[in-house]
C-alpha cells in the first residue's frame, strides 16, 4: 500500500475541489446563457402603456398579474425588457434582475393602497435611525469627521426640513447610529407624503431606503426624480 504525504493529500483535495468548482460555474453559466430560439421577450405598446410579452403572450408576475407599465414609465419598461432578454425564459429568475424585481413589488404588492399604508410604518422606522442624522461628536477624530459629515449630510438634513416643512432631529454622539425618535408631527406629515406616492414611486422608495439605510436619501431620490442629471448625480454620490 502506498502512503501519501499530508501535503500531497492537501494538494489533491484542493485540485479536485477547484475542478468541481470550475465545473459548477460552467454549468451555471451555461444554464443562464442558454437560449431557446422558440422563446422571445417583446414589448407591446398599448394606448395607455406598455406590456411585456413572452412568445406573443402576456408575461406575468409571480402572483399572476400581467407585466404592464404606464406610458410615463417607458424607460423602466424597456429596461425590464432588456433584463428579461438577458436570460433564457426557461431559467428566468426574478431576483437576479433588480428592475424586474422592483417592478414586481410595484405590480403585485403596492398596486393596493392599503399595502402601501401598511408598509409605510416599516419604512418610517428608518427615519429614527437614519444614517445622515447620526453625527459624530466634536472630539471624535479631532473633529475632522464631524466637519466632513456636516459638509456631506448637512445639505440633506436642511433639504428634508424645508421639503416637508417639519423639524427633523439629529444626534451627536460617540456610539454611532442610535435610536433617534422624531416628533409625532414630523412622522405624521412624512407618512402622509409616503402614502400618497403611487405604486412605482413607493417600490422605488422602499428599494432606495433599504439599500442606503437612510430614509432621507431614499426620499430625495424620489422627490427629485425629475430634476437635472447633475443634481441626481450629486445624490448618488452620497450613497
TrEMBL record:
The taxonomic lineage of its organism, from the top, reads: Eukaryota, Fungi, Dikarya, Ascomycota, Taphrinomycotina
Gene Ontology terms describing biological process: mitochondrial proton-transporting ATP synthase complex assembly
Q: Which organism is it from?
A: Pneumocystis wakefieldiae
Return the GO cellular component terms, semicolon-separated.
mitochondrion
For this protein, the record's InterPro entries field holds:
ATP12_ATP_synth-F1-assembly, ATP12_ortho_dom_sf
Q: Quote the protein name from its UniProt record.
A: Uncharacterized protein
Which Gene3D superfamilies does the UniProt record give?
ATP12 ATPase
Task: Extract the PANTHER family matched here.
Answer: ATP SYNTHASE MITOCHONDRIAL F1 COMPLEX ASSEMBLY FACTOR 2 (PTHR21013:SF10), ATP SYNTHASE MITOCHONDRIAL F1 COMPLEX ASSEMBLY FACTOR 2/ATP12 PROTEIN, MITOCHONDRIAL PRECURSOR (PTHR21013)
Amino acid at each position: 500500500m502506498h502512503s501519501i504525504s499530508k501535503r500531497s493529500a492537501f494538494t489533491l483535495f484542493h485540485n479536485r475541489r477547484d475542478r468541481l468548482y470550475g465545473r459548477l460555474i460552467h454549468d451555471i453559466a451555461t444554464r443562464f446563457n442558454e437560449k431557446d430560439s422558440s422563446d422571445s421577450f417583446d414589448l407591446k405598446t398599448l394606448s395607455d402603456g406598455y406590456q411585456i410579452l413572452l412568445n406573443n403572450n402576456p408575461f406575468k408576475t409571480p402572483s399572476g398579474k400581467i407585466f404592464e407599465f404606464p406610458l410615463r414609465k417607458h424607460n423602466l419598461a424597456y429596461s425590464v425588457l432588456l433584463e428579461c432578454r438577458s436570460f433564457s425564459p426557461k431559467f428566468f429568475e426574478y431576483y437576479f434582475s433588480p428592475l424586474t424585481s422592483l417592478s414586481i413589488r410595484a405590480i403585485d404588492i403596492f398596486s393596493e393602497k392599503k399595502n402601501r399604508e401598511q408598509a409605510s410604518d416599516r419604512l418610517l422606522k428608518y427615519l429614527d435611525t437614519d444614517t445622515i442624522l447620526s453625527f459624530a461628536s466634536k472630539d471624535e477624530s479631532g473633529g475632522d469627521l464631524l466637519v466632513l459629515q456636516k459638509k456631506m449630510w448637512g445639505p440633506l438634513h436642511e433639504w428634508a426640513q424645508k421639503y416637508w416643512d417639519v423639524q427633523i432631529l439629529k444626534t451627536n454622539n460617540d456610539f454611532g447610529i442610535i435610536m433617534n425618535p422624531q416628533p409625532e408631527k414630523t412622522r405624521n406629515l412624512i407618512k402622509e407624503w409616503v402614502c400618497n406616492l403611487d405604486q412605482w414611486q413607493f417600490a422605488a422608495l422602499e428599494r432606495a431606503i433599504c439599500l442606503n439605510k437612510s430614509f432621507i436619501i431614499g426620499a430625495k431620490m424620489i422627490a427629485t426624480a425629475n430634476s437635472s442629471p447633475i443634481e441626481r448625480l450629486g445624490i448618488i454620490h452620497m450613497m
